[in-house]
Design a protein that fits this description.
alpha+beta, 8-stranded mixed β-sheet, about 425 residues, 2 domains, Helix Hairpins, 3-stranded antiparallel β-sheet
Length: about 425
């Protein structure tokens, strides 16, 4: 959530920054609510002052054994007006908070202008796309020909946008997860974390999925009112919700493997073939909780950690700086890692690494105790996939495919595959 004071004091400037994202801030709505709030706030303060004045007079009158009837009546009247004013103030503040929850984050000054992905800026590339002596197949043809990737059975079991993996491809999927967890926990300094796969609405509000993206979530219809997680970012970030972290315990770095569940509302007709866009998939997520002045350094570090996985797998990729109009709701700045897929002859997103600054922290009331002042201050949150497992599996199958229909195993994964070097 944006800083309410900033929205109040710099309303037009805030509107101009949000316009970079293509978001139109309703100045009249916020200005009107704020004006009403100020009027009721002044009235409340005046009534409190009057009550204090009459309370003192009652004390003096009691000491003189004077008649208190008129004074008591005045206090009763003021108390009634005060209760009414405080109710109005609460309603107005709730209305303002409801509006604030719909406002996206303000883009960092370094984020390029633009309304969609065509304005994203390529930052760097790594690796060279492989050259094949035949027309490369996509992962669906590879997996189904091997008899180890089954979309029809998944549709029978559940429905569209699910898959059943068998044999060595299923093992390769598991190997990728273990390789990512080992690399990030043993070499990059992240603490491996296991979290619930269901969360409450407050957790989703904390990271920005609610109220705006309710249609993208799977809500469980039972007495608990839980949601299936769309990403491990939600439960992991909420570890520090309503918490004041000691200065000696920051930064915090978490790595977490989890399934992710998304309804993909609004994406029907897109990527319907294969494993690119499914309702259930796996990710290894990286989350850093850091001091505000170190969050952009943390974003570069976390992005480099995700890149290391692609480099060790020898998968060609590029890093894109997202433009203001293509960023996620809560992000102040985002880098997308896009891996080369020979079957599609293009780069596709495999990780988004974002700095949310204090946007999520304000919603979660996640704070740390400043070492100099000793006062609680909001942390900054940074997160990204390290990597999306299903899309990494797709990239390995397509980039390491062989002319005979087999798939060579990347060298770093051979130990995780029990020494097997080729899937046939």
């Amino acid at each position: 959530m944006l800083n309410p004071k900033r929205v109040r004091d710099e309303l037009e400037s805030t509107a101009a920054q949000l316009a970079r994202r293509g978001f139109r801030l309703d100045l009249a709505q916020i200005g009107g609510l704020e004006q009403q709030r100020k009027v009721i706030q002044v009235k409340t303060q005046e009534l409190q002052a009057q009550r204090n004045k009459f309370s003192k007079e009652i004390g003096i009158a009691k000491s003189k054994a004077a008649d208190l009837q008129d004074l008591m009546a005045a206090v009763a009247r003021i108390n009634a007006e005060l209760v009414d004013a405080e109710k109005q103030l609460t309603v107005l503040q709730q209305a303002l908070d409801a509006v604030l929850l719909t406002l996206p984050n303000i883009p960092h000054y370094s984020v390029p202008d633009g309304s969609d992905e065509t304005a994203n800026v390529e930052l760097r590339r790594w690796g060279t796309p492989p050259v094949f002596e035949y027309t490369p197949r996509d992962h669906v043809d590879i997996g189904t020909t091997l008899g180890q990737m089954d979309f029809d059975t998944a549709t029978k079991i559940t429905g569209a946008r699910f898959v059943v993996l068998h044999g060595m491809i299923a093992r390769l999927h598991r190997a990728l997860i273990q390789f990512m967890l080992d690399t990030h926990s043993q070499e990059h300094g992240y603490s491996e974390t296991y979290v619930p796969y269901m969360v409450n609405a407050e957790s989703l509000r904390g990271t920005g999925q609610l109220p705006k993206f309710g249609a993208d979530l799977f809500k469980l219809s039972n007495e608990h009112d839980y949601y299936l997680i769309p990403t491990a970012e939600v439960p992991v970030s909420n570890i520090v919700r309503n918490t004041i972290i000691d200065a000696a315990q920051i930064p915090r770095k978490y790595v977490c493997h989890s399934p992710c569940f998304r309804s993909e509302a609004g994406s029907y007709g897109k990527d319907t073939r294969g494993m690119i866009r499914q309702h259930q998939f796996e990710k290894v997520e990286l989350v850093q909780i850091v001091e505000p002045d170190k969050s952009y350094q943390a974003l570069e570090e976390l992005t480099a950690h995700a890149e290391q996985i692609l480099k060790r797998l020898q998968l060609p990729y590029r890093v894109m700086t997202l433009c203001a109009g293509d960023m996620g709701f809560a992000a102040a700045k985002t880098y997308d890692l896009e891996v080369w897929l020979p079957g599609q002859k293009c780069y596709r997103e495999i990780s988004s690494c974002s700095n949310f600054e204090d946007f999520q922290a304000r919603r979660m009331q996640a704070r740390y105790r400043h070492p100099q002042t000793g006062k609680p201050e909001l942390v900054h949150t940074v997160n990204g996939s390290g990597l999306a497992v299903g899309r990494t599996l797709v990239a390995v199958l397509e980039n390491y495919q062989q002319a005979d229909g087999g798939v060579r195993i990347p060298e770093v994964l051979v130990p995780y595959m029990g020494g097997i070097g080729v899937i046939r």
